[in-house]
Amino acid sequence: MTDQQHPLNTLKTSTLDRQLSLAKTSLTIGKNWAKTGLSGLFLSKEQKAQQKNAFMQEQADYLAFELGKLKGSVVKVGQMLALYGEHMLPPPVVSALHTLDDKTTPIAWHLIYESLQAQLGDKVADFEIERTPIGTASLAQVHKATHKYTGRQVVLKVQYPNVANAIDADLAVFKRLLKITGAIPQTKSLDDWFDEIRALLHREVDYRMEADTTKRFANHLMNDERYVVPTIYDNYSTDRLICMSFESGIALNDPQVLALSQDRRDRLGQSAIEIVIREIFDWGEMQTDPNFGNYLVRLDENGHDKLVLLDFGAIKRFDDKLLTIAKNLLIAGYHQDKSMMNSAMTGYSFFDDLTGKPKDDVSDVFLLACEPFAKSDVITQQLLDERGHYIWSKSDLYNRVMIRTKNGMTSKEFALPPKEMMFISRKFIGAYAMLSTIDARTDSNKIIGKYVI
Question: Which of 55, 69, 237, 382 is the most exposed place for a label (fewest CB within 10 A)?
């Protein structure tokens, strides 16, 4: 176990403790910057550049590690910046913040057990609980357990103590930190962005709501054998604890998945992306967290592999107006028709406030982002296989979208991404990473064809 993996024996949950921790982190980084400035006085220009890049990566890694220890909302905001910070933060900082999507430092067992006792009372004795977590995140830790009386294997997702109460204070601290650094312009867009993050986090720490959402998605998918959704056990679930069935599977990037035949990987990819489209077109709500850890693959010897869906906390519901716009954007993307895309953007304040080239640039970005869902006769044939299916790993789509986005963001008219679109784009970024990793090829007609007729 590395230093960064040793369990935390304390968890800073008070506003003062968390503010002091961030202040200490900022002070340490500031002192180190001063030291490196002095040490570089006699270096050449090239040597100074190399020293600066290496030092920035080191300090960015340190920052991400300290944020990971704090848990809670601070980590969530760091994860958001990792996804949307390419155009406003140095690459080493973005790279380090991306590590917050991985397993964060676990909390020591005695603290977790205290939380389990607080939520379950005497019923905690009904389980044999494994002390080593099978999952750690910014808001909760997951432990596998066996129900003593039925032998049923379950998982207990227990929220870290008091993180729910720290959300508002965390966001205020992080926003002040951004203001001090000047990394992001302080605009109404930033206020709206933080308001949306705050609302999402308050929903995400409400485990009764997550349990209900899990049941709702299980109902959506009950007749589709491609998916597995855990069963919720209400008698052992509370506002801060979810007890659900343990669902076996392996990670999406497991070598066994990557070694599957092309057809089997294609079916898994098709299943994963169809969920995204159905969330927009059929259900009107989206699981916005694209973390790989939220999905498992259950292999089947007959090739009928299943996608296990694990986490329904970061759910965002969309109103009819936004859903109509999102649907029309995807339909325009299916046809790769710029006039349709411009029309689809009408009626949404972020787009309506743009004029001339900035609006034209945004239209181009959306057209490019919709490329995997476009019909085969309007896509560069090099990106399609012999069946006319889109080759995600060959497309370099993410980099192409980011380059075009950066070019469009040079206008003073452009601010932060609109809060509603932020969560949709976050999900699509995750889908791109997922399908590229398993080298899936998908059929756009099967994905979106029925919605464009």
Answer: 382
Count of CB atoms within 10 A of residue 162's CB?
14
Choose from 44-58, 61-75, 255-269 the range with maximum mean pLDDT. Answer: 255-269
**Cα dihedral: 92, 95, 96, 97 (round 10):** 120
> What are residue 317's phi and psi, to 5 degrees?
-95, 145
pLDDT digits (tens, 9 = 90+) for 382-407: 999 999 999 999 999 888 887 887 76
For helices 188-204 and 72-84, give the axis angle rounded to 10 degrees: 130
Nearest CA to 393 among 335, 432, 338, 348?
432
Q: Read off the pTM.
A: 0.79
Q: Which two structure tokens, joined as six digits, stand for 36?
A: 């490196």
At 309 the three-state DSSP class reads strand
The secondary structure of 134-160 as a DSSP string is SEE-SSEEEEEEEETTT--EEEEEEEP
What's the token pair of residue 357? 């080239």
In three-state secondary structure terms, 35 is: helix
Structure tokens at 52: 């600066």
The type of residue at 316 is: K
Q: What is the tens place of the pLDDT at every residue in 180-229?
A: 554 555 666 667 777 877 887 888 889 999 999 999 999 999 999 999 99
SS3 assignment, position 200: helix
